[in-house]
Amino acid sequence: MTESRDYLEMSFRSIECFKDGKLDAQELGKLLVIAERDGEIDDNEIRVLQNIISRIKPDEIDQAMHEKLTEIVSKVAA
Questions:
Q1: The domain containing residue 53 runs over which residues?
Q2: Distance (Å, rounded) from C-alpha 73 to C-alpha 8?
């Protein structure tokens, strides 16, 4: 089985998402879809998601973002 390269696509797309200086819940959701595309979230994808999440500022966390972050945590902590 070949290693998934989805984490590279996630990294590239996250750069595009942050171009306006901020990531919203919809953009984060699209990155999660890429991570889940092959049926599992692997270690590289988790690392990329953690890196992306670490760049979110507290004042950017609205209700939609909070729900998306909670969803991601539940999926990568399992």
A1: 6-76
A2: 20
